[in-house]
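Hello Y.,

Per our agreement to keep a running log of every chain we model this quarter, I'm adding this entry. I've kept the format consistent with earlier entries: sequence first, then predicted structure.
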Amino acid sequence: MNDRMRELVDKLNEASRAYYAKDVEIMSNYEYDKLYDELVNLEAETGITLSDSPTVNVGYESVDFLPKEAHEKPMLSLSKTKDRAELHDWVGEKEAILSWKLDGLTIVLTYKNGDLHKAVTRGNGEVGEVITANARTFKNIPLKISYKGDLIVRGEAVITYSDFEKINAAIIDADSKYKNPRNLCSGSVRQLDSSVTANRNVRFYAFSLVSSEDIEFNNSFENQFKYLKGLGFDVVEYKRVNKDNILETIEWFAESIETNNIPSDGLVLTYDDIAYGASLGRTAKFPRNAIAFKWQDEIKETILREIEWSPSRTGLINPVAIFDTIDLEGTNVSRASLHNISYVEDLKLGIGDRITVYKANMIIPQIAENITKSGNLTIPSVCPVCGGATEVRQDSDTKMLYCSNTHCAAKKIKSFSHFVERNAMNIEGLSEATLEKFISLGFIKDFVDIYKLETYRDKITNLEGFGEKSYENIIASINASRECMLYALINALGIPGIGSANAKLLCKAFDNDLDKLLSATVEDISAVEGMGEILATGIVNYMQDEKNLKLIDALRKELNFIKIIVDESTQVLAGKTFVITGSLNNYVNRDELKSIIEEKGGKVSGSVSAKTTALINNDATSNSSKNKKAKELGVEIITEAQFEEMYLA
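Predicted structure for the entry above:
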């Protein structure tokens, strides 16, 4: 039943996001209402309301400070071991529960009369910060539960690796990116503005039921987990173990680390027999009913062969250690980040040094020790990408290396990313991360260098994460892009104010002739509908810049522009502008209908204005923002069938 509720919440929220954020209807109003009513009935039947349920509207709050509050019961740390045999001996003849030790921020939730009453961070174990408003925005916390007594539950607030990567990917400044999910989660949970927390996709996994009234668990810790799941909580993943299967279960967890999306830094072993665990009491620091297990770092010696200096889009040049390949935790490792100049100097690194390497939390390669300590490393004086001068900057106690050239290609990653987009040169396989890697290694300095990547075949196929197949796919996509429309290149160049639609208009106005476009004056371009003098001036300034002309000339030698012969008799939509919204019946997608309109001389805009000829929407009664705008401006709303009848017949 809880699984069905989660499924309904996800489906309804997806439909709402598509409808309100993208003007896309992925389900009918009838289907939405049917699923919504089913969710309402399930919430009434179970007494559970998930935090992101569309049946509740969680308002965001801002505060000037987070108040502190003492915990009802002190939160003790667990004693720790890295010895698997010790866990085996610790279990003895008892049954126990082995679970992930999640790497986030511990939170205590209090429920009263079925409602989330309070949420407090662990703090120092005795006093924590009250973050109730923020907790209400966590993605999976039940705001209401069926149990009406007082209930206190502990768990870990975490941000998954996949969400962490998405959040970091949206941050352009490399220096502003978050270091790890735990730091991001800690900052997100303790925000003064809960709307910030809501955007971070924080999740809560229960690991302990602290107190409840009049509930029988048959003296089983596992039954508490099952009860919490029944109330709508996500609980930490666990396995039931004894002395016969604990070692193989630890190995199962070890093998699962690589695919586990939730950050963890070990395991927790807890006696299933609650009374027995309580009878053991506690030390001054630790309870005796549970023990934490930290992964034993596998450390291996190798030889440092090279330091790769990798510039980022902010100009920061990151040092990366390249060493003889070693097998760590079942994978081949030959690289480790060195973070900054201070880190390099502290290790006294030099080429040829004997170093030891391990994987932090069995995932991230790190240098443990430099045995030789030659300290003979030379900090580069020029950027490996552009050849510009480098400079060492001091930030607090940390030295970092920067490229001082404002025109360094590494700082223009977004322009390269745009160049290869589907609506530009349409080169698959060159993701932003791949482009950044190729640029940092000096393979790409300008757009035209993309068409010369075959020069670096051996180096690319030997890069970590690449191989012959991925190289061949990239080259095939590059070669396919050589046959292109002129407007694709004009869009790809990233001329200010020129996107896909304006690039098509511009090229069409000058007969898809690059030479005519290059020689056009401000007056010529201003005469093109929708351009205007300011935009025209910017285009002409770009086209007359000597550096840009040199780039365009180099690119045209690599490309073959597809000739477009326009039959004026087919341009029945010339001078007309349409907006498309909602689902379509007779076309694969909006792009197909858009192409037909443009082929016939029309223009497709993303927003409704007074210049819009008609809004194409199969549901004229919907309350979408575009429908409302069209009605306000008196713009006609027509179905795709009416469009075909009125304009294409």
